[in-house]
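User: For documentation purposes, I need each entry recorded in a consistent format: the amino acid sequence on its own, followed directly by the corresponding structure tokens. There are two entries in this batch. Please keep commentary to a minimum and don't merge the entries.

Assistant: Recorded as requested. Entry 1:
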Amino acid sequence: MFPHHREREQPIFSTRAHVFQIDPTTKRNWIPASKHAVSVSFFYDANRNVYRIISVGGTKAIINCTVTPSMTFTKTSQKFGQWADSRANTVYGLGFATEQQLHQFSEKFKEVKDAARLAREKSQDKELANSALTIAAPQDLSDELQSPPVMCVNGPEDKLFRSQSADITLSAEKERIKKMLSEGSICELNLEAELFTLQDSNSKLVAALHEANANVEQWKKQLAAYQEETERLREQVAELEAHGGHGPSDLLKDELSQSLEELEALLKAKDEEIHILQSKKAEYHQMEHERDEAIHRLRETEMRNSELERRIQNSEQNLNNSLEDRDRMDSEIQRAIEILDIKIFDLNDLRQSLVKLIDK
């Protein structure tokens, strides 16, 4: 049975790294799984109480690893670490940009591994309790669960055949809904990882934009001061040219002209820097647009998941109704079998009585 309200996986930590996988033939060389640094995230499934490491590159999952208590993350250098996944029969390697990112990922891996160990211990305790209850149950139920004897009665046999066909149809429908739900979960997981990456990039761009805006204001003030100084120097040059002085005035004029050229070059450089910052601001608006689109796609996926959950509930209701019908038919068949047994017993008594009568 599917749960009526399925909780989706939640991201708990994310970073960016270059992903590698061990060469399956040599078991020594590393094969790049991504051309560029991609997001590597820890997800928690509250429904199954499991933790997973997910990394999506393009349209496929590069890493889809369930964290177990036996896993160990090993730092092999200042910016590289690895761990083995026995289920996928491979070894994953991550190359980080800084040593701090490697340390953060290693600490989070330890926390998630400890949480997975506690979850497994709780699950084992529940299984032990369930097994104890099973052992303590009465053994007479096994006799009641045995199949009734097969009798050549057309009505009950036909009902039993229809019941088995209904079970097969319901099982196929259940598997189809499981497949649809898993596909919706993978799509939602990819969108969540993309949204998580966009949010991280957005926060970095916002910080850079604030810093750039502060620098632009400061540079505008400097430009205003330089422009005032340039105008003053130009006025002095004009006065010197009007007086037509020679000697020391010519040297002062050269110095003022050189200062004027330096200030104009500085103004040109500042204008270029302002132009670069304005282009970065346009990139920031583009990132915001992409983030909004990702949020829109995520909402659409959530709506599709809600529709799938509704269909699952309807299928469960139909399955329950079919099981009740089957139980009702089984009880009718059992009553028919009991009646036939009584009739056969009565016929045997009648036959024995007739045999005794003939012998006399």
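Entry 2:
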Amino acid sequence: MASTANQIIHCKAAVSWEAGKPLVIEEVVVAPPQAMEVRIKILYTALCHTDVYFWEAKGQSPLFPRIFGHEAGGIVESVGEGVTELKPGDHVLPIFTGECRACAHCKSEQSNMCELLRINTERGVMIEDGKSRFSIKGQPIYHFLGTSTFSEYTVVHSGCVAKINPSAPLDTVFVLSCGFCTGFGATVNVAKPPKGSTVAVFGLGAVGLAAAEGARFSGASRIIGVDVNPNKFEQAKKFGVTEFVNPKDHNKPVQEVLVEMTNGGVDTSIECTGNIQAMISAFESVHDGWGVAVLVGFPGKDDVFKTHPLNFLTERTLKGTFYGNFKPRTDIPLLVEKYMNKEIELEKFITHSVPFSEINTAFDLMLKGEGIRCLIRMEE
């Protein structure tokens, strides 16, 4: 890799030229990293629902052409000026949010929402100079979430890179860079269900299953999965889900069903759908006096959360979370060690695998609601 440091790199990337259209494998030029940036050789990546949401460009400002991707693992190829904690050859996970370690949020034990590097879905350029590091025949190609991992090489701010144990298998631990941490942390770090409690998880996609895994890890006695797709129920049993509710099977609001099932409401609910009605149902399904609901899903820009104030006055708690309250640089290497010590399981999240040339297959699988995570192998 030393031979490419400080030079442009020509490589393959899956470029999204317009909303909802199949990605095209193109040869792109990747510029060298600037101050506080690193260039990473991506070895494995995956498609997340957030990529699909912005690829479809429904409910937000479209920004194309763009290179999507934000769940991945790779190796540092070169570093820019001022980068001291990373060096070529380091095994890393690029993260869609960051940790500058200097702002009030980074210094707080209660927050992981870095003021400098928190997620910005609208920004398609680098913070340092407001320019893209990708181009095709001189035309800039926009970044996505500061990561753009659907490229053999990408440039990321060093504060958004978690350096991990080089012995960890990158084709497995890459799921920590988004989906797993978001759901698992929502349960373990935010909801904190007591041992023996009852937890409801709304939405049994990758994030919801990670939330269920967090409930199992915490010692919950009942984990109720709520989803409108019954095909997900059998698979969810592997993640500790003990009971299932399909809202379509009932002629009453699902929160009423859960309250009846649990003699007053669940102790904790985790919402992982982004559907505003599911968010309201998750909150209204928790028990008065001590129930805690945590919102994880990304809502539409015009959504409004409506519930009666009495639901708060009767001592129910509503919380939100961002990336499961994990600090990328500090906490993710520790989670990798938990995996290496067999304290958490990650393999069961990876249900499909395709070469980079077939990346559009991963979109087809997600749009059909099949599988959990599709591993995309950059080297075929």
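Summary note for entry 2:
The radius of gyration is 21 Å.
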